[in-house]
Amino acid sequence: GSMLGLRGLRLPPAGILLLLPFLPPLLLPAAPAPHRASYKPVIVVHGLFDSSYSFRHLLEYINETHPGTVVTVLDLFDGRESLRPLWEQVQGFGEAVAPIMAEAPEGVHLICYSQGGLVCRALLSVMEEHNVDSFISLSSPQMGQYGDTDYLKWLFPTSMRSNLYRICYSPWGQEFSICNYWHDPHHDDLYLNASSFLALINGERDHPNATAWRKNFLRVGRLVLIGGPDDGVITPWQSSFFGFYDANETVLEMEEQPVYLRDSFGLKTLLARGAIVRCPMAGIAHTAWHSNRTLYETCIEPWLS
Length: 305
Fold this sequence. Notes:
Blueprint: H1 14-19, H2 23-27, E1 42-45, H3 56-65, E2 71-73, H4 86-102, E3 108-113, H5 115-126, E4 132-138, H6 150-155, H7 165-168, H8 177-180, H9 188-194, H10 198-201, H11 210-217, E5 222-227, E6 244-245, E7 251-252, H12 258-261, H13 267-272, E8 276-280, H14 293-300
Parallel strand pairs: 1-2, 1-3, 3-4, 4-5, 5-8
Antiparallel strand pairs: 6-7
Helix pairs in contact: 4-5, 5-11
């Protein structure tokens, strides 16, 4: 079996294993207390079928480079619950981050992975008083998803990407998080009419809150976009940088996107302000973004002030 001959050993309860990374410092004499006004709190939002456990490495890295940082990995909508409609998740995560923000007058940093990056972008749009300094979007399908991935085959075994719009662009389909950002470049009219989430936060469909949401989103100090060509899940991978397919499945970069050109939710304004950082990195698969040390040091650590 996978236990590699450990079967006879009594393994300690999982709780103790989780503590192991934190034990060595406890054995050392107490260090002098660092001066206050240290690093801003970090809030982490997970992705599809994920839980807080996936971020144990990231926690370790932040602990090493920015000791004393208060990091909260939100434990909501874990596992299958991550398929709940995204507006429901925005509501739940919003209630969880509000008190953390309230206690952080200097501001907070958000690290949001995969589907969580869309939850966070919606949060920044609907929260009037948010104080997010860096919003770090970690391999997130910011302009939507259009790909035959393993997730898709598991959820909708009989559908290919070319016909998934029949499910996703129905009221029933929009009850699944994946359909909330399913973006079929061949059925734009259906997407605009049916997408109850992405088309709204992108300001692609008119709605009464568009101006207020744009103003809220522009409160962010910095937008850090991370992704890469070897991701294997985000399709097209440039969606992590607000690029997406046109009707011919040619990828148009952010600066060529109508939402950018119209500045419908603030991207153009942020770029002009010098507040967008793009950090593409090759050689990293989708499930490895939050545990790759080099990626952390290059693309995340510099923005955790």
